[in-house]
Structure formats: structure tokens, C-alpha cells
Specification:
The complex is a heterodimer of chains A (about 625) and B (about 240). Chain A is built from 13 helices and 32 strands. Chain A is of the alpha+beta class and about 625 residues long. In chain B, the strands form 3 sheets. In chain B, strands 8-7-6-5-4-3-18 form a 7-stranded antiparallel beta sheet, with no helix packed on it. In chain B, strands 1-2-17-16-15-14 form a 6-stranded mixed beta sheet. Chain B starts with a strand and ends with a strand. The chains are: A alpha+beta (about 625), B mainly beta (about 240).
């Protein structure tokens, strides 16, 4: 917070990545230079895929540490705090990728405070690279400002790029990058003068995202298996595989609510996507509102003529009427089944449906669980369903569950000028399957508590990660096999996993951040349990939720089931009230965005109405 | 229909629903001093939807300014303006801008009618166009007061009673039936009401989707928030 009487004298971001598992520590120190006590704020942003693991405040030598508790228990403390007029809740949504953690404390005159926030995440490989995103907004010039990123990848580093959205030509050379075979170090540490917006002014140039992108070498088809401290992790992304052609049906919502920009962006994205189809692919278009009107009654080969004709058709798709998701998806399933039965499509092509919708079904079947049931029954494990939820009014969890029930994934498309690119980006991610029905096998007598080891697809540019625990600490190697369906022939590979000695690979590195393989296993397990707890029989859901909660508590991860409780120091007014840091779910994020959208748009109103009260009556 | 009382100074809003049989006429604003009267008549759906829920909306508004001799009859089809014995009929498919000595009208085709009555009130009526072949729903209207500060302290009605602000406190936040919608206790007019944090739509800026406005929802037709109960605002005629 810009305040002349508060000097932030140190801001450091220290990120260490060991085998894709990133551990970030954000530290900020400030001094209250005023003659009276005042509130000092600490506000940082972190990726929404990260789990907070630690938070502490040091005030006058006294350290206040956050404690991870079961959410329900923390909630009770929270309610007490709210009823006594205190505020709580430290984590809020911030854009598409980030979450904001903010806390404030009252600091005595001429006293110091140091805030330290730690979070961990498994970096996901997308389109051939991993991304470490750090958002920095110090708001004032800082004596000691430093971003340090260390990457340790035993497989070897293929490339590293580092840049910042705030980096001018003058600041760019200050980014130092050292890359050796399996280690990279990136640092950025501008002086007070270099941070200054202009000579003599107090404004800082440091405001935005600092991004590091990298990839690792992939020498073997089996992938890389690392055994460290009794846990193993298998990274599987074989190089040089031919892509599998696909049969893809695009089911496009053109109901009234898609009118305007959304429809326009959908058309633009579809035109680009059609251009990207490969000659061996087959495709169909099923636009729908309350009526389902396929472009053709069967899938068409992506020949130049067919694609050109489809593009003409796409340009004419207009919004109108209600939303019948149920019948539209069932129509797509039926089309794929019929075309297979009639041998209209090649046998080894992979079947997929891509559903794009912006809202709730209000025509035909509108009961969401029944739609999920109908779709699951019709698909019956024979094809993948990918769902794109466009805008804020879509019930994302409905689409998410439906996609997961049918070997697919869901993605939110945010209403913004780049929606076309978001749609294309998602398509790019899922449109190039390299393998299907990937089965990674490990000997039962050697490993236990293995994370999901069967994957419906492996997409180009992504990576499959499986982790587990060794059943016996003395095991130093075991057999690993991978089976999958590839293009034209089956994919089968086997090899030996051997324990790694990090001390040998990184002799100068005494300590990275402890038991990272074990924590990576815990992170993956919790994520998968949370996914599973969204669907399936209720007993299974409860079981998975309970297991995820246990692990979250055991490993001190702030997940949607736990909260971090931070007790503020006592003040003259009495004992400090607890503050709660939560992990938001996708639904909560969406809800928060709806609210912030409302406030944001109000800023554009003519001033006379912006502050005037409004009284109105309208339809529900 | 849902009623919304936005209180920007408190960065908060209050809301409630009032439902009655289609055809009921409610008084929304009555200011005896300036001679302003706004009444609204509800309509229902074309037929009862399969979920059996009877929805009502405003389908017609009658607005009178006695001192200025102005009368407006706004339906989902057309707008009838009478002033000093002269009558003008406009269709929602028109676009029009009328500037008079006592009244300004701005009709945006198929969307909104903004009315400014000299030295008294400014409001907008929105037309919600529903897909013509929709099996259940039909077109309806929304009424938004934009400026009411010139009305007298005696102004009343379902909306009018709030034009001069309202005092309330909210405390005892607790989990509600739905996780995202906590309940709380609202202290208002000497009573404690159970209220729920929710959202209602403001359609002024996006007539199709609306924008969610977070508000404290008062249950049971606004009982406890409004003076008397909803039936006290039922009137026999539009004018």
C-alpha cells in the first residue's frame, strides 16, 4: 500500500523447482516509520493451481505462524470472528490464473514486520513447456528487491526463457540466466534507481508478471522415473510419436444467450480450428438451440473441399432460441456410433465430442443430473467428451463432471476480447492425441499408493505424471511397463526404474527443499481424490473426501477441504482475531468473478448515477 | 418480480420478491405532494411451466404526473403518452427522442424508455423481449428509478418508501441452506429478520443476461422490510 510512513525495504521471491515440483517463498519486510501504530498490508498473488503450505508474520521478534486445519473447524472460528465484527478470509480470486492472498496487521510505531508466504505446485506441461508464473506488485521502490528461480531437472534442460510483462529495454538485461545441463538459475534484482519509473519520481516500474518457461530433454520412450527417499515419480511424454487421427464432432450452442460477441468469437475460433484439421481427421458440426440442426448427417473427411464448405456454413451460424444440451450431445454420440457401425470412419481414429455452451439447458431435458446420466449412458466409455463453458453464467461444475465422466476435460472460457484465442488454445491442447488408453504398470510387490495410472489419452505437448510409494525402503529398482493404443499399431515399452542419488547429480546442492518427491505424490493424490469426490456413488465420494482431507492435514496443504488459520497479535482492544486462508474452488471463483464484473462495469457509468442509489423492480 | 434497493453509500443492497396472481396491480410510487403515481400490473407466463412454478412479471405500467398533466401507459407492445389532451402512441420497434417543456422521452428501439419528468423524477422502463415462440414465457417490463431526490418526504409505495434511504444492520452471519448463500440477522425498523445473502439481476446494462447484484434477500414478500405487507399496495386501477 503506497504510504510514505511505511517503508517496504525488502521483497524477495524465491522459487525452487525440483523435477517440476515448485516451491515458492515470498517474503516481504516493512517498517512503520510513523509515530503512531498503523495497519500494514501484505498482498501477494499465487497461481490457482498452487497449495499454500505455510504463512508466518514476524513482528518485533515474535513469530505468528499459520496452522492448517479442517475447514469446518476453521469455519467455526471464522464465524466467531465475523459475529464479533472482525473481518476474515484472506484468499480471493485474481484474474484467470491467480489467487490473491492478503493480510493486514497493526504495527507499533517504529516497528518492523516480515511476512513469509510459501506455496507449492506441480508444474503442468502444456504445448511443450512448463511455466512458472510470479506476479510482483511492490507498489513502491524497494531497497532489496529480488526474484530468484532455481530449476533442477535431472533429465536435462532443453531450453529456458525468462521475461516479465513489466520489463523495459533497460530492465531486460538485468535478468540473469545461467543454464547448465540439468540446472538453471534465473535472477532479477534491480537496484532502487533501476526500479524508478522516471528520474526523481517515486513510482516503480515493477508491476506485473515475471514468467519462466522451460522444457526438459526426453531421451527415452519409457519416460523418466525418479526414485527419491522411498517415493517414485514417473514422467511420461515419449518423443517423436505420430499423432492419432480423430473423429471430432463440434456441438455448438447458438442459443439466444450466445448472441453478440460470444457468437462472433465462436465463429472466428471455429474457422481457425477447421483450418487446423488434418486431412486424415473426420469432423461434424452440430449447432443447437432448442432445435438440433447438424450440418451433415454423418462425419466428413477433412478434405480441402469439405473444410471450405464447413467454413461457409460456420459463417452463417446465428444465435436464436433456447438451449437443449441433452439432445445435442446425444445426437453427436449417435452420429459417431452410426458412422462407426457403417464403416464411414477409419477404425483407429479416436472419437471425440467438443461441446461449447454458455448456459443452462432450458429446453428439452433440463435436469442436470439426468443429462449427465443420459450422456454417460449413451457414450458408455466409447468416446471422449470435452466441454467448454463460455462466460459467467454457465454451470461449470455440471460440465466439469460430465466431461470427466466421459474421458474428457472441461475448461472455462472467459468472456473477454481474447475468447477466440482461448477456444483455439484449448482445441490445440486436446486436438493432437498421440496415444489412447495409456496404462502405466508397476509391480504390485514393489510399490503402493500409486496415483492414477490409467489415462484415456496422451496429448501432444503434455505429460503424464504418476507417483507412488515404495513398499520397501530397500527397493532400488523395479520394472516399469507402458501399454497404449498408438496410430496404426499398439504402443508397448518397458524398462527398469532405478533410485536416484541427488547428492551425485547435484553434488553442490546440499538441500533442495526436503522431501519433494513425497510432497509431489501427496499433491497429486489430493488433486485426484478431490476430482473423484465430485462424481460417483455417495459413499465413494465421502471416502475420497475423507482421504483427501487426511492428506491435506498431514502435509499442511491448504486445499478446498482445509483452511489456514492465522492468529493476529493482541492489540490494545483485546486478543487478536483469527484470519482464514482458504483454497477456492472453480465454482467459487466463477461466483466471485460475477460479483467483481458487476462492480467493474459500474465504474463506467456516468458519475451522476454511479453514486446515486437505484431502486428497481424487474423479472427474476 | 424482484425488487432491489441499491445503497451505494453502504456498498450494499436489499432485495425481495413479491408474487401474486397475474393481473394484480401494485402501487410502486405515490407522492401526493408532487402528484406522481406509478402503478404496475403483473402478467404471468403463457401457460404454467412443467415445474409448476407460477412466475409473475410486470407487463404494464401506468405513470401519472398530475401537476404536469402527464400520463404514460406502457405495455410490452406499445407506449401511450398523453399530455394536456394530446395523445402520442409509440411502438417498442420505434426509436424516438421527444423533448418537451415538462417531459423528455428517449425510446431506444426494442430496449428501453427513459423518462425525465421536470423537477421530479427520472426513470427507465426496460423491455425484456422473450423469444416469440417460447412455449411458456412472454415479453415483460422492468422499472428502474434513476433519480428521485426531488420527490417529497411523503413519497411512498413499494419502491417509493425507500427513496429517502433506510437504516439497517446485519449481524450473526451463519451458514445458510446453500453454501454460497449464508444467512444473517437484519435489524431493521425495530425488528430482527432472517435474511439470506444472494444475488439479483440488474438488466440496465445487459438486457439479455443482466448483471448480478449481491444483496440481502428479505423473505416472505419483503415482510418486515416494507411498511405493512404486500397486499397493502394492491390497487384497483392502473391510474
Amino acid at each position: 500500500i503506497p504510504n510514505a510512513m511505511v517503508e517496504v525495504y525488502s521483497v524477495t521471491v524465491d522459487c525452487t523447482v525440483a523435477s517440476r515440483f515448485a516451491h515458492t517463498v515470498m517474503t516481504s519486510s516493512a517498517i512503520n516509520k510513523a509515530n503512531a501504530s498503523q495497519e500494514i498490508f501484505f498482498e501477494v498473488e499465487m497461481p490457482k493451481t498452487a497449495f499454500i503450505t505455510n504463512f508466518s508474520m514476524e513482528i518485533e521478534g515474535q513469530i505468528y505462524v499459520g496452522e492448517v486445519k479442517e475447514k469446518e473447524k476453521a469455519k467455526k472460528q471464522y464465524e466467531k470472528a465475523v459475529s464479533s465484527g472482525q473481518t476474515a478470509g484472506l484468499v480471493k480470486v485474481s484474474g484467470r490464473k491467480m489467487e490473491k492472498f492478503s493480510v493486514s496487521v497493526n504495527i507499533a510505531a517504529n516497528s518492523n514486520v516480515t511476512f513469509v508466504l510459501t506455496y507449492q505446485e506441480l508444474l503442468q506441461r502444456k504445448l511443450g513447456q512448463y511455466e512458472i508464473l510470479t506476479r510482483v506488485k511492490p507498489k513502491q521502490l524497494v531497497q532489496n528487491f529480488q526474484i530468484e528461480v532455481d530449476i533442477y531437472e535431472p533429465q536435462g534442460i532443453a531450453f529456458v526463457d525468462a521475461y516479465g510483462t513489466f520489463l523495459s529495454n533497460e530492465l531486460l538485461p538485468l535478468v540473469e540466466k545461467t543454464v547448465t545441463d540439468n540446472k538453471a538459475h534465473i535472477s532479477f534484482s534491480p537496484t532502487l534507481e533501476q526500479q524508478r519509473k522516471c528520474p526523481g519520481c517515486d513510482g516503480t516500474l515493477i508491476d506485473g508478471d515475471f514468467i519462466v518457461k522451460y522444457d526438459v530433454n526426453r531421451a527415452t520412450t519409457l519416460g523418466d522415473i525418479q526414485i527419491v527417499n522411498g517415493y517414485f515419480v514417473h514422467f511420461f511424454a515419449p518423443p517423436d510419436l505420430p499423432r492419432v487421427p480423430k473423429n471430432v464432432v463440434f456441438v455448438i450452442d447458438r442459443s439466444g444467450s450466445m448472441g453478440g460477441t460470444k457468437m462472433q468469437q465462436t465463429r472466428e475460433a471455429l474457422l481457425e480450428i477447421l483450418k487446423d484439421l488434418h486431412m486424415e481427421d473426420y469432423f461434424a458440426l452440430i449447432p443447437f438451440d432448442h432445435e438440433i440442426t447438424p450440418w451433415k448427417n454423418s462425419l466428413m473427411k477433412a478434405t480441402e473441399e469439405n473444410v471450405a464448405e464447413a467454413m461457409k456454413y460456420v459463417r452463417r451460424i446465428n444465435d436464436n432460441g433456447g438451449t437443449n444440451i441433452n439432445d445435442a450431445v446425444l445426437r453427436a454420440v449417435k452420429m459417431l456410433i452410426n458412422d462407426r457401425k457403417n464403416n464411414n470412419v477409419p477404425e483407429r481414429n479416436l472419437d471425440m465430442i467438443i461441446l461449447l455452451t454458455d448456459g443452462m439447458p432450458n429446453s428439452g431435458e433440463s435436469h442436470l443430473p439426468r443429462i449427465q446420466e443420459n450422456v454417460r449412458g449413451a457414450i458408455d466409455g466409447n468416446m471422449s467428451l470435452f466441454c467448454l463453458g463460455f462466460g459467467n453464467d454457465v454451470d461449470y461444475s455440471f460440465l466439469d463432471v460430465m466431461a470427466k465422466q466421459n474421458k474428457g476435460v472441461a475448461r472455462r472460457i472467459y468472456e473477454a476480447s481474447d475468447a477466440t484465442l482461448q477456444l483455439q488454445g484449448f482445441y490445440e491442447e486436446v486436438s493432437s492425441p498421440l496415444l489412447s488408453e495409456v496404462d502405466l504398470r508397476y509391480p504390485d510387490n514393489a510399490v503402493e499408493y500409486v496415483t492414477t495410472n490409467h489415462f484415456r489419452q496422451l496429448f501432444n505437448g503434455s505429460e503424464i505424471v504418476v507417483a507412488g510409494r515404495l513398499s520397501d525402503n530397500d527397493i532400488n529398482n523395479f520394472l516399469v511397463e507402458v501399454f497404449a493404443n498408438g496410430f496404426e499399431e499398439d504402443f508397448q515399452v518397458q524398462g527398469q526404474a532405478s533410485a536416484m542419488d541427488w547428492d551425485v547429480i547435484y553434488p553442490d546442492q546440499e538441500y533442495i527443499f526436503g522431501d519433494f518427491t513425497e510432497r509431489m505424490w501427496a499433491y497429486l493424490t489430493i488433486q485426484q481424490l478431490l476430482e473423484k469426490s465430485k462424481s460417483g456413488p455417495s459413499e465413494e465420494k465421502e471416502n475420497n473426501t475423507a482421504k483427501a482431507l487426511d492428506l491435506s492435514l498431514q502435509y499442511s496443504f491448504v486445499t478446498p477441504l482445509t483452511s489456514m488459520v492465522v492468529t493476529k497479535p493482541e492489540t490494545e482492544d483485546g486478543p487478536g482475531s483469527p484470519l482464514i486462508a482458504d483454497k477456492l474452488t472453480e465454482e467459487q471463483r466463477q461466483q466471485a468473478e460475477k460479483t467483481s464484473f458487476y462492480h467493474r462495469t459500474h465504474a463506467h457509468y456516468p458519475p451522476v448515477y454511479a453514486s446515486a442509489p437505484t431502486y428497481f423492480v424487474d423479472g427474476d | 418480480p424482484h425488487f432491489m434497493i441499491e445503497l451505494p453509500e453502504r456498498e450494499d443492497s436489499l432485495c425481495f420478491n413479491i408474487n401474486d396472481t397475474p393481473g394484480t396491480i401494485f402501487n410502486l410510487v405515490r407522492d401526493p405532494t408532487s402528484g406522481i403515481l406509478v402503478n404496475g400490473q403483473t402478467i404471468g407466463d403463457k401457460k404454467i411451466p412443467p415445474d409448476g412454478k407460477i412466475n409473475t412479471y410486470f407487463g404494464r405500467f401506468g405513470i401519472v404526473h398530475q401537476s404536469l398533466g402527464v400520463r404514460l401507459d406502457v405495455t410490452t407492445k406499445d407506449i401511450l403518452v398523453s399530455q394536456d389532451g394530446k395523445r402520442v402512441k409509440m411502438l417498442w420497434s420505434d426509436a424516438a427522442s421527444l423533448k418537451g417543456a415538462n417531459m423528455d422521452l428517449l425510446l431506444t428501439k426494442d430496449r428501453s424508455l427513459t423518462v425525465t419528468l421536470r423537477d421530479s423524477v427520472k426513470f427507465v422502463i426496460l423491455l425484456h423481449k422473450v423469444w416469440e415462440k417460447h412455449p411458456y414465457h412472454q415479453n415483460y417490463l422492468g422499472f428502474y428509478t434513476l433519480d428521485s431526490h426531488l420527490l417529497s418526504p411523503s413519497v411512498h409505495g413499494l419502491l417509493g418508501q425507500f427513496y429517502h434511504g433506510i437504516e439497517f444492520e446485519v449481524a450473526d452471519l451463519r451458514p445458510g441452506e446453500v453454501e454460497e448463500k449464508p444467512d444473517a440477522t437484519m435489524y431493521i425498523k425495530g425488528q430482527a429478520l432472517n435474511v439470506t445473502r444472494g444475488w439479483q439481476k440488474d438488466y440496465r446494462w445487459d438486457v439479455k443476461n443482466g448483471e448480478n447484484v449481491p444483496c440481502w434477500f428479505v423473505h416472505s414478500n419483503g415482510t418486515g422490510l416494507i411498511d405493512g405487507d404486500a397486499s397493502d399496495y394492491v390497487v384497483s386501477g392502473l391510474f
